[in-house]
Amino acid sequence: MNPGLYIHVPFCLRKCPYCDFYSESSLAQKKAYLEGVVREMDLVAKDLCVEAPFDTVYFGGGTPSLLKPSEVARLLEAARTRFSFGEDVEVTLEVNPGTVTPTTLAGFKVAGVTRLNIGVQSLDDGTLSFLGRLHSAGDATAALEAARECGFSNIGADLIYGVPGQDLAAVRADVAALLSHAPEHLSCYMLTLESGTPLYARHGNRDFSMPGDTEQGAFFGAVSDTLTENGYLHYEVSNFARGAGFVSRHNTKYWEMATTVGIGPSAHGFYTGGGAREHPVRRWNVAHLGTWLEHLARGERPVEGEEALDREAMMTEALYLGLRRMEGVDLGALSRRFSQDLGWVLSPVVKGFVDEGLMVADREAVRLTRRGFAVADGIVLRLLQAL
Ligand code: SF4
């Protein structure tokens, strides 16, 4: 599989209380950051050993739409002159409603962005307010409409559900409102409480309660049913596409453990290596803009840590990532790759899940049912314990 390039844009106008991604709320160092990205590309390009050309670029964050179109164009040009790219490149930019106008969106298109991922999260003002988002439902609607009017034909939207105060009808209404914009892709996430965030602390103080397992399962089912009934492919636990042509090419690289180069503070990269390197390596950058810049000023790669994935770790990840996808895991291929008969090892546990209707299995492959998707993490854990 071709490699992909991820660029982390570490700026947000304000920190959302549930978010644990790295970002800074001041744009004062934006110019230094842009120069740093180009410098980091130089350093990465010197060491990089990939056989195929890149076919994706993903601007994630943070809030990449705080960059100007000319700045996005500059980073894309810098990437093109340092790495090899194929003809057909998916270039995704994450957009926060309220940070863009029809003019900036049109500018991103001219800059070379082919796909927008809009952080809608909800089209209900009460839900957005609970999430502490800066934008309103009106801002999100305006961004979705403007994106379409600018000619983007591949628009993704993020949705968060299971927000305290929501019932099943509210979740369904939010999905229906989003569907009226016919996005090509939807990423739907259940709200989770990340340790260390203000929302986590509020929950600890009993300010609100989270939906229980049964309610969460019902929400998940409602989201999946509504979207599949409307022609979307539920191709990964949290991801839906309006047909196979709109599956996220970049995210597929993570699920298939292809090489992804991560640039920017806190960015992660995964290097499958070629022949000479024994184990694939995951590498992550320092999660602090100032420190990241200091490393680059010294001519060093701003890497905070790395982990070589041995056979067991690769097998674990392949199982974990595969079961979260519609296709499931080809146990025959996995057994051959890791020289271990996984079908035989896992069959007693798999049988239990099949009997419960959570999994479908034949001699070669296992995949989760829609009900299984709802409890995917627990199933994967049980399988891993059996290995
Ligand atoms: S805008 Fe996105 S990245 Fe920034 S704080 Fe909010 S959730 Fe996190």
TrEMBL record:
It comes from Desulfoluna butyratoxydans. Belongs to the anaerobic coproporphyrinogen-III oxidase family. HemW subfamily. GO terms for cellular component: cytoplasm. InterPro entries: Aldolase_TIM, Coproporphyrinogen-III_oxidase, Elp3/MiaA/NifB-like_rSAM, HemN_C, HemW-like, rSAM, rSAM_sf. Its cofactor is [4Fe-4S] cluster. Probably acts as a heme chaperone, transferring heme to an unknown acceptor. Binds one molecule of heme per monomer, possibly covalently. Binds 1 [4Fe-4S] cluster. The cluster is coordinated with 3 cysteines and an exchangeable S-adenosyl-L-methionine. The keyword Heme applies. PANTHER family: COPROPORPHYRINIGEN III OXIDASE, RADICAL S-ADENOSYL METHIONINE DOMAIN-CONTAINING PROTEIN 1, MITOCHONDRIAL. It is found in: Cytoplasm. One of its GO terms (molecular function) is metal ion binding. This is Heme chaperone HemW. Residues 1-233 form the Radical SAM core domain. GO terms for biological process: porphyrin-containing compound biosynthetic process. SMART domains: Elp3. The keyword Iron applies. Keywords: 4Fe-4S, Chaperone, Cytoplasm, Heme, Iron, Iron-sulfur, Metal-binding, S-adenosyl-L-methionine. Coiled coil: none annotated.
